[in-house]
Specification:
This protein is an alpha/beta fold. Helices cover 50% and strands 16% of the residues. It has 6 helices and 5 strands. It is globular and about 45 Å long.
Amino acid sequence: MNEHAEALRVLVVDDDPGVIAVLRDGLRLVGGYEVLIARDGAHGLESVFETAPDCIIVDVRMPGLNGYQFVRALRGDPATAQKPIIVLSALVQDRDELAGMLSGADAYLFKPIKMADLLQALQQAMNLTASERLKRSHLLTEEDRSLT
């Protein structure tokens, strides 16, 4: 990261205090990110519009609005449709990963996560262009159709 630039802001949306602490500390210390926290999907959506984070990490299983619904809500709004989003979940089945990617996530990672893997996924998500996001979405949709 550029020393002269402001720290990039990452919003972590998760209801597990232990996960929040690990991500907050790791992203700050290892990645140099400013970390914002929301403990559920509804507060996460509010925070996206109030704080304009550079990237979002979201859990799937949360009370109220789950991670898939959260991602779809952001992808459906032109103001946030291109926001980099990573799903970080304990749900590790292929169908869970496919559901996360079909909802519009840029990456679907499994808990527990190595900080180096998360930092790499953050960089990749933040470097995606709108056309790359759209192309990947079309490919996933076609793949999903061929499975049914």
